[in-house]
Amino acid sequence: MAKRVTGPEIEKLIQLLAKVPGLGPRSARRAALHLVKKKDQLLGPLADAMVEAHRKVRICSCCGNVDTSDPCSVCTDARRDHSCIIVVEDVADLWALERTGAMNTAYHVLGGTLSPLDGVGPDDLNIRGLVDRVVKGEVRELIIAVNATVEGQTTAHYITDQLDGLDVRITRLAHGVPVGGELDYLDDGTLTAALRARTAI
Amino acid sequence: MAKRVTGPEIEKLIQLLAKVPGLGPRSARRAALHLVKKKDQLLGPLADAMVEAHRKVRICSCCGNVDTSDPCSVCTDARRDHSCIIVVEDVADLWALERTGAMNTAYHVLGGTLSPLDGVGPDDLNIRGLVDRVVKGEVRELIIAVNATVEGQTTAHYITDQLDGLDVRITRLAHGVPVGGELDYLDDGTLTAALRARTAI
């Protein structure tokens, strides 16, 4: 803004909101105005929630999940099957898989994928911790649920190599047609995989 | 989420972020994770900015702008021409007009438009304050810059009626073809208005 039309505190709020993923400079202004208008219903509680989250948030030293306790809610949940670990790239993937409610297992967050071009090596990921968990025993199966990208697959292979000789079953997510997906719009690789892995009706 | 995968403080943060315009439940989760990952670079400063904004934000008692001082930065800016007031529906419109840098005037925020169906009458808007400002004198021109909707135009007419007999020039924004706009995509009303208000090249 050329001339000042509002207070520096509000400009600062807009500036920081614009850094939140999903908000740009324009929507940050809209968001800030909305927050300011709903001062006591939204801005206040949100401010408190942020202060609280900032104070309490922890990265789980066992699985890498984000929580306010360490070990996290997943690692300490006695109703889960901790002999099966789903390996994911990111906490968002853990939450997404958990929303399906399909499994009731433990997780392990790598914190990314191997990517030599970006300077991400094995030591930058939480792979050592994963191997330790498997070595300690009591892990029956490892489901490697990384993204189906080149980096993801490289990471999956690297992990498999690291666990060579250990008594653990290593699996990965099935490739195939997304539920509700239209064949016409799918790439050749997915279609080929779906054909190869066809199942009896 | 079916089972708890993260702390209640983080779930609370996601819940509140989802109420911010521009963010939905899915992007709120993504935003929360990003904030938590950038705990000290983003979450902390944003929390502070919100606490500060919540503590300091004021609605200008003169023009209705949002600021941290009352009267606001616009009303107290001696370099502005306070004999010309641009009347807008919302603070967002004030900021948008101010970004153009086209005018160097005072503003007046109505806080909405007359809308009998939604139960918004003249007393729900900041119209009394506007009339007072004009009655006090020293206002030469009022530019009514409300949206070109039925409610906006009704509000403009109502304000004009209220100021009947006072020595002030009342104008409104020109209708016409948006800069960069294609005629083919414009509605008949806009094209008719643009033709009627044609100017010499």
TrEMBL record, chains A, B:
SMART domains, sorted: TOPRIM
Keywords per UniProt: DNA damage, DNA recombination, DNA repair, Metal-binding, Zinc, Zinc-finger
Toprim domain segment(s): 83-178
Domain of life: Bacteria
Cross-referenced Pfam families: RecR_C, RecR_HhH, RecR_ZnF, Toprim_4
GO biological process, one term: DNA repair
Coiled-coil stretches: none
Zinc finger (C4-type): 60-75
Matches recorded under Gene3D superfamilies: 3.40.1360.10, 6.10.250.240, RecR Domain 1
Single Gene Ontology MF annotation: DNA binding
InterPro entries per UniProt: DNA_Rcmb_RecR (IPR000093), Rcmb_RecR (IPR023627), Rcmb_RecR_Znf (IPR015967), TOPRIM_dom (IPR006171), TOPRIM_RecR (IPR034137)
Similarity comment text for this entry: Belongs to the RecR family.
Task performed by this protein: May play a role in DNA repair. It seems to be involved in an RecBC-independent recombinational process of DNA repair. It may act with RecF and RecO.
HAMAP family: RecR
Annotated protein name in UniProt: Recombination protein RecR
Native source organism of the sequence: Rhizobium quercicola
The encoding gene: recR
